[in-house]
Amino acid sequence: MSFVYRGLEATLHRHIITEEEVNAQLERLRQQSPRIAAVTDRPTQPGDEVVLDYAGFCDGEQFPGGTAEKQTLVLGSGSFIPGFEEQLLDKVPGQQVVVKVTFPEGYHAPNLAGKAAEFRCTIHEIRLKTPYALDDDFAREVGGFETMEQMRAGMKKSLQDYTDQMGEQDLQDRLLRQAADSLNFTPTVSQMEQAMDEQMENLKAQLAHQGLTMEMYCQFLSTTEEKLREDSRGEAETSIRTQAAVEQIVYTEGLEASKEEIAQALAVICRQNNMTMEQLRPHYDAALEAAVVRSVLTAKAMQLIRDNAVITKVTDGK
């Protein structure tokens, strides 16, 4: 195998965060972080958030999936079955309410579709959500800054750091693909099949994380799983070629993953998954170790390409 991975040329585009982008991010955070106060001097009203337990019954029998404890519900949001939320209005904490509804004909659970049901509810708490103003109180209570001016500056730096990081990552990805394109290498049929299988498994995992199935996804796109798999061929080949390029660079340059670098990579895994090294240890087998070593070597190979590339830097408006 022979290919070019030194002296590659690429452009690094740097976007400078604007005040409008900072304002938009602050507004999103304001919308996501309202003040929440307990209401004790009146019954429930539209717009209140209630904390409640409920148990659903149909034909006198409690049905699966219809029970919850300390569930939060904003009255008037339309989150629950039609007619449910209205029956929780003008109620007080501690009150038990029997909510009677009829499931829609097109309800996702066929055994409940079109049927009458009752939910035995207990209201624990009434909460009122009110938006913050973009002031020093918001900065202290939500942002952890003393003043709004400090929060705005911190937000701008955070957004700029993230944007720069994403720009650098994109640059290194493009350089690695550029190097891989020059590699005299043709994936085998077996490699392609395995890579396409992995692409599909990754897609299924992403869909599951969003509460979707492959069948639902195919229906939405008016396609088939076989078609999706075939469409993944190009990206699968790119993945194989880039990995082959990394392996060739590692071999040619004699790159190694030190114990310290592996430990740092494991620390990142722990942070990303909110776990300690002790919690990770039972899962640290040969396969995970190989994956970690591979990620370290891939990062070192990409950095080597980056350090030896000719980069033209372009900043917004310049």
Layout of strands and helices, then pairs:
Elements: E1 9-14, H1 19-32, E2 35-38, E3 49-58, E4 61-74, E5 96-102, E6 116-130, H2 136-143, H3 148-181, H4 189-209, H5 214-221, H6 225-231, H7 233-253, H8 259-272, H9 277-280, H10 286-307, E7 310-315
Parallel strand pairs: 1-7
Antiparallel strand pairs: 2-6, 3-4, 3-6, 5-6
Helix pairs in contact: 1-3, 2-3, 3-7, 3-10, 4-7, 7-10, 8-10
Order of helices and strands: EHEEEEEHHHHHHHHHE
The radius of gyration is: 27 Å
Q: Average pLDDT across residues?
A: 93
Strand proportion: 15-25%
CATH topology of the domain at 35-130: Chitinase A, domain 3
Low-confidence stretches: none
CATH class of the domain at 35-130: Alpha Beta
Give the count of helical stretches: 10
Structural class: alpha+beta
Helical fraction equals 40-55%
Number of beta-strand segments: 7
CATH architecture type of the domain at 35-130? Roll
Biggest β-sheet strands, sense, barrel: 5 strands, antiparallel
| Principal-axis shape | extended
Q: In angstroms, what separates the terminal alpha carbons?
A: 40 Å
